[in-house]
Amino acid sequence: MFPIDAHYSDFPQKFWNSTQFRGLVTGDVDVRNYTNYKVRFDMPGTDDNLWYSFKVGPIHFVVISTEVYFFLLYGGLEAIYSHYKWLDDTLRQANLPQNRAKWPWVITLGHRPMYCSNAALRYCRLDSNPVRVGLLRSYGLEDLLYEHGVDVAFWGHNHCYERLFPTYDGKVFNGSYENPYRNPKAPIHITSGAAGNQEGSSNFRGVRQPWSAFGTTEKGYTRLVPYNKTHLFVQQVSAEKAGKIIDSLFIVKEKHGSYAKLFPETRQKKRKRGRFFKL
């Protein structure tokens, strides 16, 4: 798994030949219209590999593209529409009872996060973040994650690690005060981008938002362990401290599915969709 981005897809071919990938996410590779990525990797599901899904054990991984909102030169509005429709259809199928019985955990992998606390990355602190709410309020992805019951959303781009409380529409929906990750009432967002980068780390702001549970710029990687259909274990492993675990949590879900249906009392007023272009 390489769930961060293809920022280094122009590395020498020898490196990529010796490495097997699933869960590669496109991002920050606009210089050559994703050419290095497209010709070097063969991901399941689509011709150009930019979004796809696959299953491992009890997990259905859904790899999405956040770049369609930022590089209109390479796909325009059609790319936004195609990606949104594909994601809606894929998550709808994943959330069918017979599919949830086989693959109860639905996890998305994307490049640019919907939420962050980093000082220099302003877009993911804004209500207008296009990954969340769409381009001109059209075809945002956060509602899809909520409506179709995505359990965890992993992101990269930011050179840090940040774990959120269960969050939707900028609000925290913990399972309970004592056990926020037991039967959470919204997706759990985790940015795992701390493996190291020549540009340096993405430092955090002094004041965090209520949805930010933990963050660090310490270099490391994230470990994911699905114990069964109800328990998922997440760890952040420090490379600077010889493999020490610096963050961990058990996500416990007695039921999987649409948060709007499982917890109707927390359902938010549906966002107004923009009129710039229609499905």
From TrEMBL:
Where does the Calcineurin-like phosphoesterase domain lie? 40-161
> What does the UniProt keyword field contain?
Glycoprotein
Keyword Glycoprotein listed: yes
Q: Which domain of life is it from?
A: Eukaryota
Purple acid phosphatase C-terminal domain sequence ranges: 186-248
Which CDD domains has this protein been placed in? MPP_PAPs
Pfam name, any one: Metallophos_C
As one GO molecular function, the record gives:
hydrolase activity
UniProt keyword annotation of Calcium present: no
Spell out the PANTHER family in the cross-references. Answer: ACID PHOSPHATASE TYPE 7, PURPLE ACID PHOSPHATASE
**Protein name from the UniProt record:** Acid phosphatase type 7
Encoded by which gene? acp7
